[in-house]
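Researcher: Quick sanity check before group meeting.
Model: Go ahead. Protein one:
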Amino acid sequence: MSQSLAATGAAADRLSALALTGDLDRPARLTVPDLLAWPQHRARVAFECSTSGVQHHRFTGPLLHDVLMAAGPAFDPARRKDRLRFLIAVRGADGHHALLSWAEIDPDFGRAPVLLAATLDDTPLDRAGAQLVLPRDRCGARYISGIETIRVDGGYSAWT
């Protein structure tokens, strides 16, 4: 899968790409075809949308946790709980933002099956860009379409 992180060919110019940035050893730009090269997970979801009511969709894509782990989050390996101070900020092309904690997606803690969806209802999101999908959320507010940037931030420090 590290090959997927490095892939940025000419097709990236025509396809929407998302940037993995922040406290990562291997920041990257990923297109939907890059995400399709990862192990795919499926989610049938229903969520409430404030403008159009309840939505029902099928999404496919890799787990956010898997993609971010391949990018090398800058955890202190000597401190198992160090990863719990990391936050994940996601921004869409329309300016929509969402914030997650690392603990939400970490298999040792929340284990939320958050997807970087590459397909919506069996249609590839090549031009529109990947979508953040949180199958456990009742409200669709954290579903981010056309992801431009995912920033991993370990700079958060405990209160003093």
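Researcher: Fine. The other one?
Model: Protein two, sequence then structure:
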Amino acid sequence: MLERVTTISAMHIAWTSFLLALVVITIVPGPDFVLIMGNAVRSLRLGVVAALGVITGLLVHATLATIGLSALVVAVPTALFVVKAIGAVYLAYLGFMTLRSASKPIAQEPPRKDSSVFLRGMLCDLLNPKVMLTFLSLIPQAMDPNAAPLPQAAVLSAVTVGVFAAFWVVVVPLARQLGTLLSKPKIRAAFERVCGTALIGMAASVLAA
């Protein structure tokens, strides 16, 4: 244990630039943000479940980036294109489902199951190639080239997941405060149309990237 602590402390990781870039990436709205917001305004429980799904997806990305599988996908153009295509199709699907929901009175909608919301959150993050590329572009730049790469990747990946999780701990309760305003049918429908359109636009941007 002492040897492990000494090894980590000896790393000269570029924490300042890494954390600044990570904060900016975290607060810029993306598909995860839209999905979590759309559930959080309905109930705090659904917002938390969606956020847990997203964080689970982040953990998978962090693990894959740490052991190098994500880097392999990026190195193979065909594999990366397949990941992008699947992610874009899924985001577009979420967008169309959200637009469809906006056209229905909330009383006519079937209740959302926790398992379904969790799975959507996880897949939304897991199938987003931009999340994968964030891990593979941000983390290597902060690493000490003179230290062992695996411990550094593990530490930086863990910090990345932790920062995102802390962000959702703050944002989900705040988003729930919009629930009263969005209980008005016209405002709710407009909000969901914006969310649905945003998801479809993000799907297009994933393919174009």
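Researcher: One line on it for the slide.
Model: Confidence is low (pLDDT under 50) at residues 1-7.
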